[in-house]
Amino acid sequence: MKKRIFNVFAVLALTASVVSCQDKGKEAKTKEAEPVAESTVATEKYNLDLAESTIYWKGFKPTGSHHGIVKLEKGVFKATGTELVSGSFLIDMTSIEDQDLEPGDMKNNLEAHLKGTVEGKEGDFFDTTKFPTAAFEITGVQPTEGNKSLLSGNLTIKGIKQNITFPVTVINEGNTISVMSDTFTIDRTQWEVNYGSKSVFDNLGDKFINDDVQLKFALKATKA
């Protein structure tokens, strides 16, 4: 892949709000989990920079939407030259944050419901007491053109592992490697996040929540 001197994280401050207003993006190709990618040649290790890495999310319902971020707990990438080869990272599901509501009861209640810290509603969404982390493990990287690639990996949520494929931009600047995905969606019911789903429950009327959840990965790692 062609090396470019371009810091994607310098523009995130200007574009973070774009995730909340753009189209949903293409749905990631989802299938059964696959073997994790392993390098057969010498690679360099890059540790995830937690302060510079974020996952953006957006959920939809007939009356509107909510969007926010979730933080990373740790992670590593391995690369040879400018090529991303393998890697994995843990997602801190207890850090789920809504960014469209003002601080107060509505924001706190939504975040608590998503995390599963409301008594009797633990399993509605992510049940973070039982499943405090989600995980992503790279299973393949297919370069396309320029610094674009199709990234495949096993995404584990609530103990359920599914393989997804989506476009990313990979930029290797020597001491740092950045991986920024296109905006894409996943079907949350594939991980048994079923609350308010018309495909799971009948007679919801317009009181449903869309199955598609929009995601965007913005990750940066520094050479170990």
List the helices and strands and how they pair.
Elements (H helix, E strand, L loop, with lengths): L11 H4 L10 E2 L1 E4 L11 E5 L5 E8 L2 E17 L2 E16 L6 H11 L17 E11 L4 E10 L2 E13 L3 E6 L2 E4 L24 E12 L1
Parallel strand pairs: 1-11
Antiparallel strand pairs: 2-9, 3-5, 3-12, 4-5, 4-12, 5-6, 6-7, 7-8, 8-9, 9-10, 10-12, 11-12
Q: What Rg do the Cα atoms give?
A: 18 Å
CATH topology: Lipocalin
Helix percentage = under 10%
Quote the distance from N terminus to C terminus: 21 Å
Number of spatially distinct domains = 1
Strand composition percent:
over 45%
Spans of at least 5 consecutive residues with low confidence: 1-22
Tell me the number of helical segments per DSSP (H or I, 4 or more residues long).
Answer: 2
Largest beta sheet, briefly? 12 strands, mixed
Order of helices and strands: HEEEEEEHEEEEEE
Task: Write the CATH homologous superfamily.
Answer: Lipid/polyisoprenoid-binding, YceI-like
Whole-number mean pLDDT: 89
CATH class placement? Mainly Beta
